[in-house]
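Lab notebook, bench 4. Still working through the backlog of constructs that have no structural model yet. Next entry is a single chain of 76 residues. Request: give me the structure tokens for it.
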Amino acid sequence: MKNNFRRKILIVVAIVLVVGIYSSKKQPSIETSSLLLENVEALAYGESDYVRCLGIGSLDCPVYNVKVYSYETASR
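Model written out:
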């Protein structure tokens, strides 16, 4: 009786393993394009003003707490 129960458990485990391996290999791989990455970056950036800090100087960069030569602002 115990031997029969163990055999059933072993069969169920084997079936689960085969189905798991098959389903993991069947899923297509996703290639990330530069357009996809730009879209993700745009969504992550939000809708706030764009600030670009340039060089090293005496002005305070409004984004980072560093001294810069100049900075540009533009709305996206």
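Notes after review: The chain has two helices and two strands. The beta strands are 50-60, 67-74. Flag for follow-up if needed.
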